[in-house]
Amino acid sequence: MGNADYTYPWSNDYNSHAAASHRVAIPPPQPFVKSLKNTLKETFFPDDPLRQFKNQSPRKKLVLGLQYLFPILEWGPRYTLQFFKADLIAGITIASLAIPQGISYAKLANLPPILGLYSSFVPPLVYALMGSSRDLAVGTVAVGSLLTGSMLGQVVNANDDPKLYLHLAFTATLFAGLFEAALGIFRLGFIVDFLSHATIVGFMGGAATVVCLQQLKGIFGLDHFTHATDMILFMRSVFTQIHQWRWESAVLGCVFLFYLLLARYFSKKKAKLFWISAMAPLTSVILGSLLVYFTHAEKHGVQVIGELKKGINPASIMDLNFDSRYLTAAIKTGIVTGIIALAEGIAVGRSFAMFKNYHIDGNKEMIAFGMMNIAGSCTSCYLTAGPFSRSAVNFNAGCKTAVSNIVMAFAVMITLLFLTPLFYYTPLVVLSSIIIAAMLSLIDYEAAIHLWHVDKFDFVVCMSAYIGVVFANIEVGLVLAIGLSIMRVLLFVARPRTLVLGNIPDSKVYRSVDQYQNANNVPGLLILEIDAPIYFANSNYLRERISRWIDDEEDKLKASGDTGLQYVILDMSAVGNIDTSGISMLDEVKKIVDRRGFKLALANPGAEVMKKLNKSKFLETLGQEWLFLTVGEAVGACNYMLHSCKPKSTADDQSEKYSNNIV
Amino acid sequence: MGNADYTYPWSNDYNSHAAASHRVAIPPPQPFVKSLKNTLKETFFPDDPLRQFKNQSPRKKLVLGLQYLFPILEWGPRYTLQFFKADLIAGITIASLAIPQGISYAKLANLPPILGLYSSFVPPLVYALMGSSRDLAVGTVAVGSLLTGSMLGQVVNANDDPKLYLHLAFTATLFAGLFEAALGIFRLGFIVDFLSHATIVGFMGGAATVVCLQQLKGIFGLDHFTHATDMILFMRSVFTQIHQWRWESAVLGCVFLFYLLLARYFSKKKAKLFWISAMAPLTSVILGSLLVYFTHAEKHGVQVIGELKKGINPASIMDLNFDSRYLTAAIKTGIVTGIIALAEGIAVGRSFAMFKNYHIDGNKEMIAFGMMNIAGSCTSCYLTAGPFSRSAVNFNAGCKTAVSNIVMAFAVMITLLFLTPLFYYTPLVVLSSIIIAAMLSLIDYEAAIHLWHVDKFDFVVCMSAYIGVVFANIEVGLVLAIGLSIMRVLLFVARPRTLVLGNIPDSKVYRSVDQYQNANNVPGLLILEIDAPIYFANSNYLRERISRWIDDEEDKLKASGDTGLQYVILDMSAVGNIDTSGISMLDEVKKIVDRRGFKLALANPGAEVMKKLNKSKFLETLGQEWLFLTVGEAVGACNYMLHSCKPKSTADDQSEKYSNNIV
């Protein structure tokens, strides 16, 4: 191990347990390139995706590679009629949800309603080929639609220049796809991890609140409405137009909302009744349309969708707009919507995979999502992902594979080809009701309460996301929540806890006296545990804090008239790494301790720490004999020296008292 | 502790050491307000500055408060004639350095030379009252001057509009002071800690390189020169003007540079000869001026300072410019220069305090620096801090207290009142030589080599700061280095190491098998240590990584035909904290482990972790009996169960083999 034979001051006559001779090992040196390669692998390939390619023939490798990119090649050959029956039912069920939801969400993004249908045709087909989730149902998402609307709305007004706005939406979708695919290809999926669960809960809740408020426009049948996404402006806009409220529209909206919520209530009570909730939007649309058709309510203040173009997706690759005036907005919208869509989609995919006990590769999913949006942007689709509501219906309907997405796509295709005229009389207020009903389930106040109980900081992150989204705008909320989350990580390192350890009775174990109230201090010794890596960000703090612990301990000992402080033991078990600033800090602590006439000992430094302490010569300054494998051994050695240096009689008396502590 | 009596599956007949009954304690619940108060105190008041105020009379508190703000009140009454003699010599010595350095650095910032003298008059007086370092010599700093010049130069050209430029320099100084004081008052000093030692080494080296190159202008006597701070433009500017090089100027410059470096060389060899190096700049100025005066070299291409206004600092409070066009630049310059000046000044103060064994309060120093710059901005001074070179001379000259700063200020005042005409003939090339000589000592290549040996990442940070400063500009270098440093901290948390533990022979201790090559795996058990807090940023990673460890272990066991995996033990010793995402991760790991038919055990979760696991009901899911105080106890219990469930004969055979591992 490289440590030569040191003479331990106590080794001659220490009445020794064998344990006392354990040495702290310096890990065997590794060539720089090898250790760099190792670090990069652990950072970017924790799941070792190339594992199955090892020791295979080139032909087999090609097959495996294709199966990796297109999972359908892997499960396709094993596909049975049994599976198809299940997928057919699930696919038709989600199509009945996808059609009204698609139209509604497209309105949310200020895009033509037909785009919602287009977006439920091409992307699900792409996902069926490339996606690895069996339960995800692909389609447009509420929050993504809202984000597209509000972010693009800042540069182009959808009413003034609908064509430019539409083209920018395609361009943003392309960038979202490129960004998602790039994250997957370069294995940077961990960026999505920075959207913590708490952030997503707060963010989704905030976005849902904003969306619900925006739907007041539809419910009250208002023509003019603010595009700003902030609550105060909304409410002002709604309540300054009281004279324009249409009671017909409002009544219709409330009735359908009640119906949708009632359907959900029954579905929640009995899982078998999931289809009531799944079919409710479509039945609302049909009932609403029939009502308008027969009562001619469109002439009495109830707005309708109007004409929808027949035919499947036209190509839109020539519509992509790379005009430098709008490029920044398009890229920004693409990145933000792309990452949000990924975060939701992957979380949804993972939770259903958890249920059914299969594994989802995050980076592979990102590539699938990316390709799906790239293909979508060329075929008149806007941002798609894996909405939770649709996927849950898919799961409950008993889907087996991604074929349910193909079935849905075909159902949507048939609608596009033949059934669009049927939507002429569909009242907008029904779409608003559908959106509100979907959004209400996103406001997950129970999760927020849970956060408050378990982790106050996570609650603060969640609330800041919510408040930011509702009172400022979506980006502010997101930046606030992510900023706070990162600050928490930095603060953990910048302000590590230092814990005083004491002996657990009847053992050789030393634990925090705060946590274990029965742990006893060892007289003459101060044992400190440092709870984080020692980095530049905390080295000054730790020096100050350790000095203060020593001061406090001395004051306490002086006050009690006990033996003075003699040894300071630092438990390094939880110190995962150290940098050069940290080593300087240890040097300074050693000087401080020396100057006061105490001795410094380190217990259980890890591999990385030992490597660096050795290279920086700190080990020589400290003396190898002051390194111990465990706190117990350190205490044993210190106690031995403490008492063997005293007049014989006292030492004997006390050695009995402390014999428990000697390992 | 709140944990009820659980029946341990092995408690009936476990041939038990008493240790097996140790419970992991849940820390006693604390009221939310109290724990918040505690956290805030640890975060912002680690040094407990109000400690001395406890249990004092109001009158005493007032005195202590004043002494806290003005340390001179504390040491002043104890000041002796002995001290004064030492401070007088040190003060005169640093004044002889301060005058030429002040003039040189003011040129570096494109400010009138006289400002350098003004800045060595008022700020040292303020610092003497408020500062807590006994060795810091106050004055303008090279890097701060360079930064002021380059950052303000981006909005105003110093040659085109010298008055506006001057006023903006005062304004930037005011903002620097306000920012520094605010950091100190709000106890945000830890922001300065984010400038790691490695960053500062690289940054200082880069800035010194840039400054040296800029001085080529002075050495070659060039009139026109680029203001861009990037090396390639410099070199082009120098070498495209070869026809304008003045050999008289160049010869003079080289001679003086050689003299200055020689003086430093002797001083370094013998610490007692420090005064040679300290006096060298002043003697250079005197010799250079005499030479020019007698040879009339100013008419042969050697540029001179020219007239300096007599008299002490005029007030500049009315010159502060808050014009909105320049405000952003002034604030930005103030913040960047302020924080860099603080980082250097506090590091210098701390290192000398370390030598003399007294303590410096970082936040108090920040307030002193801030007040000194606020006062300076109103009295025609620009940014001041504690330059290393001047402070080192002060220290070597034997200063005792901040009175040496007062002495220096008076010497500068006398110069301002009576001696400014003497500088008329001082050649600019001598100033350039002084700057180059000072800068060469800032390029600390030895420190960079040390970083490479000890910590490769710190070396990368250092080099990125250097390269950024030299090839792009100062801000790019700084942002790059700080960004990388922060990324490292985030990466530590986002990609924590997971270590497989094995048993150290002849002990009950379990350590990483990578570090301790003699550590033995325990058959049927996988023991993993997680080396960082479990946060949103790493929970997905950890789930994947732990799954992979389990897969690997199973493969290995299958290949060797050994008993299959039965227990997975997570050592939580190094997990300082957990958030709700982390708890979900543990939940999922528990599910994964259960599904495969293994059992999950946790060893030594800390106080914070226990608190949250308890609140989130994870402890109930896991079962209290699967929590252990140490890995040893966990292994003991698992081994017991492993063998007691087997046919009697085998169990007996094996129990001997593993008896070492049972605690």
Automatic annotation (TrEMBL), chains A, B:
Q: What is this protein called?
A: Sulfate transporter 3.1-like
Pfam family example for this protein?
STAS
InterPro entries to which the protein is assigned, alphabetical: S04_transporter_CS (IPR018045), SLC26A/SulP_dom (IPR011547), SLC26A/SulP_fam (IPR001902), STAS_dom (IPR002645), STAS_dom_sf (IPR036513)
List, for all copies, the residue spans of the domain called STAS: 515-638
Give a Gene Ontology cellular component term annotated to this protein: membrane
The membrane-spanning stretches of this chain are 79-99, 111-130, 136-157, 164-188, 194-213, 249-266, 273-294, 326-347, 367-389, 401-419, 424-443, 463-487
Keyword Transmembrane helix on entry: yes
- Give the GO molecular function terms: secondary active sulfate transmembrane transporter activity
State the organism's lineage.
Eukaryota, Viridiplantae, Streptophyta, Embryophyta, Tracheophyta
The UniProt keywords, alphabetically, are:
Membrane, Transmembrane, Transmembrane helix, Transport
List localization entries.
Membrane
Coiled-coil stretches are none
Could you confirm whether the keyword Transmembrane helix appears in this record? yes
Q: How is this protein positioned relative to the membrane?
A: Multi-pass membrane protein
